[in-house]
Amino acid sequence: MGRVVSRASISVILVRPLAQVLEPSPVALARFFDATDLTPEMLADPEARVSPAQFCVAWAEAIRLSGDPLLALHIAEATPQGAFGIVEYVCRSAPTLRDALVQWCRYLGILDDAVEVGLVPTHDEGGSRCALRVITESQAPAPASHELCFALVARHARTMQGSAFRVAEVCFAHRTSNAHDSHRAFFEAPVRFGAQHTEIVFDGSVLDAPLRTADPHLLAILLPTAEEKRTRTSPHPLLTDQVRRALRAALMSDDAQLDTVAKRLGMTGRSLQRRLKDDGTSFQIVRDEMRRELADRYMGDGMSFAEISFLLGFSEPSAFFRAFKRWTGLTPFERRATLIEARS
Questions:
Q1: Are 245 and 239 spatial neighbours (Cβ–Cβ below 8 Å)?
Q2: Is residue 1 part of a domain?
């Protein structure tokens, strides 16, 4: 049984290549942002994520606006090494292709937790083949994204493994009217559309061949960070998370106002307030929550109340005291006493 994904999301890292394809045409790029309800500022935020629906629309619009039905293959050819951050480097540091794909399956959620993939044995006669298979599809599928994923796996594996690398077969559950010959030429293997599974298949000898990029020392350094990122979840809707990050910077510059934060996200204040209302919150609520959380952290760090009020963007400590009492029912002195007592 596939896992149930709650509040699934995709990193903007996977959306950026689609926007970059359209950059030569400002009109097409503007239409892309309008259709996806994204902004350039959001795509520039390395921690930002989009919904599966936005990701699905982004792919459909990028293909339509670029007029390129083979967009996934062309992006794969142009993507530079390291574009997918820690997930990519964990895979590149693994000892064999099999180990790299196991790591990919484990840490894919850092980039995209709307789908689940697994390395599974196939039922071939020799019994040695395994497939990197989509186990659970996104609720809003973006079929071309799977083409890009497998194309990137094949391209990078060729460079990491050299002449030992080859693909046995590539299968996609979705159907296409695009030229299959281009896919076969790219993968140098049979490619089927309308298949039972979406998967890329390898022989056991290929999976167990060593990688030129293997680096056990680097892998040991990367894994704790990757594991922390894998298990990190946010209780907030996607836009609220983006507002909280923008607010953190705005508070430090004493400019945590609606229009300022909206500008950081490439929106108008009215648009931001409307979208936050759709998330069941408001700018004032999000700002108060951020200030309350940061106040607790700063008090725990032993900062003075004057320093805290300044860092939270209050004009004077008395304004901070009044706000804190409204948030928590306690004065800052009472809250600091409870924090000290909890640590003792």
A1: no
A2: no
Confidence (pLDDT) at 254? 67
Q: Is 243 within the bounds of a domain?
A: yes
Query: How many domains would you assign to the chain?
Result: 2
Select from 202, 231, 260 the last residue of a domain. Answer: 231
Does pTM top 0.90 for this prediction?
Answer: no
Q: What is the pLDDT of residues 116-140, one digit of tens each?
A: 999 999 876 667 899 999 999 999 9
* Same structural domain, 105 and 147: yes
- Residue from 129, 205, 130 nearest 165 by CA: 205
Residues 19 and 143 grouped into a single domain: yes
Average pLDDT along the chain? 91
Strand positions, DSSP E, 194-328 = 199-202
User: Residue 251: which CATH number?
Assistant: 1.10.10.60
- Has residue 2 been placed in a domain? no
Taking the C-alpha atoms of residue 34 and residue 38, their distance in angstroms, rounded to an integer, is 7
Sequence-separated contacts (24+) of 72-76 with Cβ below 8 Å: 72/144, 72/145, 72/147, 72/148, 72/151, 73/147, 73/148, 73/151, 73/182, 73/183, 73/186, 74/21, 75/17, 75/18, 75/21, 75/148, 75/151, 76/148, 76/151, 76/152, 76/155, 76/186
**pLDDT tens, 14-60?**
999 999 999 999 999 999 999 999 999 999 998 899 999 999 999 99
Chain CA centroid to CA 74, Å: 21
